[in-house]
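REVIEWER CHECKLIST
Item 1: Sequence provided? yes
Item 2: Single chain? yes
Item 3: Sequence as submitted:
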Amino acid sequence: MRMIFYTGVLTTLLVPAVAWSDAGRQVTIDNFTFSPAALTVAKGTQVTWTNHDDIPHSIVVTGIGAHSKALDTDGSFSYQFDKAGTFSYVCGLHPHMHGQIVVR
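Item 4: Structure as written out by the authors:
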C-alpha cells in the first residue's frame, strides 16, 4: 500500500493513499478482492470493474440501484458516477467483498 505523509507543526500523520483520477478508472477483481478497494474520482467519471477471478462475481453499488449481471472471467461492468458522494459497493455473490467509490 502506498502511503502519504503529512507533516504539521504539532504532529506527523500517516494516512493511506487513495487512488484519484479525473479520467475513467479501473477496478480489478482478483482473488476475491477489489483493487483498489477505495477509489476517488471526479463527477462524471466512468468506473469499470473487470473480473480476473476464475469464478463469477457481480457488482452492487448500494444506495443508487446500480448492479451488474454475474461477470465471468474477464467480464466487465461500467457505471458513470454523476453525483458527488461516497458510494459503497459489494460483490452480490460474495458480500464479504466490498469497496468504495468517492466522487468529488
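Item 5: Key structural point noted by reviewer: Residues 59 and 91 are 5 Å apart (CA to CA).
Item 6: Recommendation: ____
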